[in-house]
Amino acid sequence: MSIAVPHGTPALATTSPVPPEPAPAPVNYLNVSHTIWSWLFTVDHKRIGLLYLGSISVFFIIGGIFAALVRMNLMSPNGAILTEDAYNRAFTAHGVMMLFFFLIPAVPGVMGNFFIPLMIGAKDLAFPKLNLASWYVFMIGAAFSGWAVLVGGIDTGWTLYPPYSSRSSQSNILPGVMGVFISGFSSIMTGLNIMVTIHKMRAPGMTWGRLPLFVWSLYGTSLIQLLATPVVAVTLLLLMVEKAAGIGIFDPTIGGDPILFQHMFWFYSHPAVYIMILPGMGVVSEILTCFSRKNIFGYHAVAWSSMGIAVVGFLLWAHHMFVAGISFYAALLFSLLSMLVAVPSAIKVFNWTATLYRGSITFHAPMILALGFLVLFVVGGLTGLFLATLGTDIHLHDTYFVVAHFHFVMVGGMVIAYMAGLHFWWPKMTGRMYSDWWSRVAAIIMIVGFFLTFVPQFIMGYHGAPRRYPNYPQEFQIYNVLSTAGSSVLGLGYLLPGIYLPLSLFFGKKATANPWSATGLEWITPSPPTVHNFDATPVVVCGPYEYAIGVDQMGRGLPEPPGPGGSDGPTGPSGPMKKETEVVG
Amino acid sequence: MTSMSLLPFIPERASTLADQFEVLFWYITITTGVVGLGVYAALAYFCVVYRRGATTGSTPRILGSTRLELGWTIIPLFVFLSYFAGGLMVYNHAAHAPADSEEIFVIGKQWMWKAQYPDGQRVIIGGNPRNMTEEERKSIGKLVLKVNKPVKLTLISEDVIHDFGVPAFRSKIDVLPGRYTSVWYQPTKLGEYHIYCDQYCGTWHSLMVGKIAVVKEEEYSDILAGFTPMPGSHTPMDGSRAQQGQQLFLKLQCINCHSATPTAKAPVLEGLYGSRVPMAGGGAEIADDHYIAESIRRPRLKQVEGWEKIMPAYDESQVSAEEMNLLVAYIRSLKKGGTPKNNQQAVPPVGAPTGPSEGTKSPAPGGK
User: Fold this and answer.
1) Vertex A576 angle, CA A574 and A581, to 5°
2) Does the residue B72 lie in any domain?
3) Touching check for A131 and chain B: CB below 8 Å?
4) Could you tell me if residue B166 is inside a domain?
5) Mutual angle of helices A365-388 and A416-430, in 10-degree steps
6) What is the band of B3 on the pLDDT scale with cuts at 50, 70, 90?
7) Is the per-residue pLDDT at A1 higher than 90?
8) Chain A CB contacts of B50 below 8 Å
9) Do A164 and B36 touch (CB under 8 A)?
10) pLDDT for residue B236 is more than 50
11) Which site among B47, B80, B288 would you substitute to test the A interface, given the most A Cβ atoms closer than 10 Å to its Cβ?
12) Is A64:A491 a contact under the CB 8 Å cutoff?
């Protein structure tokens, strides 16, 4: 595999200024058939993407309800509404639902399935039936785990540390673990499918160096899904064997080693963090370029940093275990390696920021959310350094500092990026525009609510407040009350898209093929796309972000971008058709 | 409402580690803060100056800059490595106890903490009263430490994983079943501080909390003398841990085989602690706390060169975690020629606070 030069000056001679708006196709992937079976047995990657969208939205709501229960209970130092057992089950349910059934499948399952073929100019994923199977496997897993956390519950925390989980806990562990085990196969199938698709099904001219960065980020994600998920499957299987058959693997009273579980668990679960965040980074790269009308700053740096994160991410699992009783030298090594993974993330942040330089920026909901991602991810990433550093991790480990840190990355980063992607691609997926005003308001509420919820948790954590405590010392109460108040703002922020997005399906303005005037191949088909995506296989002539020149990846002019005036005219690309590359730095 | 007052800006610092932590914490906070605010400033500036309304709509084609890329790759790397180096220094301080540290054993169980002092005093230092017997409830005390004296805790769990965290000392260590871990502090300030269980351990995890009291050295022994006995023991001052361990060693008939006589059926334990033990089939093990405890729990796991695998295993029902600590303390203390005679009445070591108690122990010499 070689990386071709990404940004050769496009073949402008063959360029027509602006292609006519493709007529909305009378038959698209949504209205081609209407029966329930046509959805349940579909092999269309777009429909499967929507199946994922529907199911993860439900799991997000379930996980969110448990989060609300946890936060409400913490209003009082002795638990406002729940018993200790109920609280323990609530935070476990929140973690299991959000991590395994929302965050991990969110972007790969919904946007990966829907947009990878569209973005590389393919008719479908490489294995359409495997794709459908992945959704069914996911739903079977979700049924097991959902049943386990809703009926009876699990009280171990999502980390499932033995010997508590294997010996001591009397809760619903076996079905819950079985569900996570099963859904892991879905993750492997999706990763495999996306990886093969990217390798084998790119349109003519879509070289590796012309791939949109979203595709690069999902490539890195798929690599992790493929290589790390089997390890958690093995781990969970061993846990079930110990629990069900009493064979000593992790429980020291029957000859096992509890630290072994932690090594195996984090060997998956740390890279899994990158399964969650990498796709979000890809989404943000698409949006920042589009709404600032700029080429991405440092395409190769951003693409390769995704791969760097994917690879180095495998080498630092034990930074979750600095105080778990591992050796001094192991801790030293894993701290050092953890510092290395911070570098590619820093590279991305600097490149995204530099992309805005001398842009022409508009602030629609996707852009506000992408900027929100950047703002929140900076905090999430930088606070991670405190936890990778040995001397500070000793104190901060297992406190609210950790909780705030990973929520900044997972929610402030990933969920906001998911929301950004959803708002960016919603017109393409549904053919409808949502309320511009309400979506901007919701985006701002989400970001502000997020800060209000989690900043107090940093302060508590710095003072040593342990996580997973329904009873806590009085002195932390004010911070918990502030955090709970903030979470209600955050909840409102999430509620609003839950209202205006569905409403847009019925009352929204019809979307044009390319409402944001973006360059990717997904925007050359009508909205919503036809069943087979493209009437003719697109031929790619240039890199993904030629906003400065104003051409899409086929070298054709872009329609007028939305937003206030200041452009060159009502039609035609926003810039001159030929433009010298400027050198900065 | 007083309960709603804010916490101090910097949490209370009560150990040498806490001071080191704060220096490192604020070094990272200030450097990352400068970078983060720099990024925010750039974002805000770009968003205002380059908003659509303020531009012609035409943008330059800028693809990147190798020099900038190199700069913002290499500079952050060195900054991060400086965090690593600082963290290593603090961790090194936290991980290695001074040789003159007094040693206290701490046992975690669902859901309480128990401590055993070198001179044999035992005290419950926290936990959920609802999980305790009436006697235990009455004897909840504090982990009393001397100010400005290093103290090492050796910790083990009787059931699941716990974590012994003391925020005022900026210290934390997981407490594992079947394996010793250790941590040390040098308290620098008189006062009372929280102990939290920081590793989730079940229903009453959040009530597995206790108190540390740092006192002046002259008050220390008075407070220790006042600790009430553990249930089942009527004398709080049975003698040192090692001496109690010797009594167990006799009671459990260990002496029958580990007799250090020419006819002994098991290895000599004198001077064992810290030595290299050759294993059957090659290799060697360092005889540390974990090795000793493991050899009692699961003696068949590792066979000492030249000896048969004949020792029975002692599980938790025969040797509790507390008793294990006593045995370990005793075997650590065993010096050349120190193995008691099989028919010898256990005598307290010189300087032990009281003689051996009658009622509870001292097996009939010679076994059954």
Assistant:
1) 105
2) yes
3) no
4) yes
5) 150
6) low
7) no
8) 292, 356-361
9) no
10) no
11) B80
12) yes
Res B132 pLDDT > 90: no
pLDDT at B368: 36
Name every residue whose Cβ is closer than 8 Å to that of residue B157 and which is 6 or more positions away in sequence. Answer: B107, B108, B109, B175, B176, B177, B321
* Euclidean distance between CA atoms A511 and A528, whole angstroms: 8
B304 φ, ψ to 5°? -75, 135
Range of the domain at B302: 241-333
Number of H helices, E strands in chain B: 8, 13
Number of structural domains in chain B = 3
Domains of chain A by residue range: 40-523
pLDDT, residue B360, reads 42
Q: Is residue B365 part of a domain?
A: no
Q: Are A289 and A302 in contact (CB under 8 A)?
A: no
d(CA A313, CA B260): 54
Handedness of CA B231, B237, B238, B244 (dihedral sign): positive
Cis peptide bond N-terminal to B111, omega within 30: yes
Confidence label for B322 from pLDDT (cuts 50, 70 and 90):
confident
Please give the helix or strand (H or E) that residue B181 lies within, else none: strand B181-185
Rg (CA), chain B: 28
Q: How many CB pairs under 8 A join A and B?
A: 328
Nearest CB neighbour to A477, from listed B4, B46, B207: B4
Helix (H) or strand (E) segment spanning residue A215: helix A213-245
Same domain, B162 and B245: no
Which secondary-structure segment (H or E) carries B191?
strand B191-197
Q: What is the ipTM score, two decimals?
A: 0.91
Burial class (CB in 10 A: 0-12, 13-18, 19+), A287: buried
* pTM summary value: 0.88
Q: What is the CATH number of the domain that holds B134?
A: 2.60.40.420
Distance CA A225, CA A106 (A): 13
Q: Does position A11 have pLDDT exceeding 70, yes or no?
A: no
Q: Report how far residue B241's alpha carbon sits from residue B140's, in angstroms, rounded to the nearest whole number.
A: 20
Portion of chain B with pLDDT greater than 90, in percent: 46
Q: How far apart are alpha carbons A139 and A119 in whole angstroms?
A: 27
User: Which of B20, B174, B197 minimises the CB distance to A325?
Assistant: B174
Does pLDDT of A5 surpass 50? no
CATH code, residues A40-523: 1.20.210.10
Q: Is residue B260 part of a domain?
A: yes
Contact state of A398 with B50 under an 8 Å Cβ cutoff: no
CB neighbours of residue B204 within 10 Å? 22
Largest CA distance in chain B: 102
Same domain, B208 and B311: no
Amino acid at site B333: S
What pLDDT is recorded for position A46?
A: 96
pLDDT at B4: 65
Interchain CB distance below 8 Å, A575 and B59: yes
Give the sign of the dihedral formed by CA B50, CA B55, CA B58, CA B62. negative
Domain closes at, from B201, B225, B249: B225
- Nearest Cα neighbor of A543 from A6, A114, A37 is A6
Q: Determine the pLDDT at residue A568.
A: 44
B83 and B144 in a common domain? no
Average pLDDT, chain B: 85
Instruction: Search chain B and give the residue with CA nearest A467.
Output: B198
Which positions 363-392 of A are in contact with B (Cβ < 8 Å)?
363, 371, 374-375, 378-379, 382-383, 385-386, 388-392
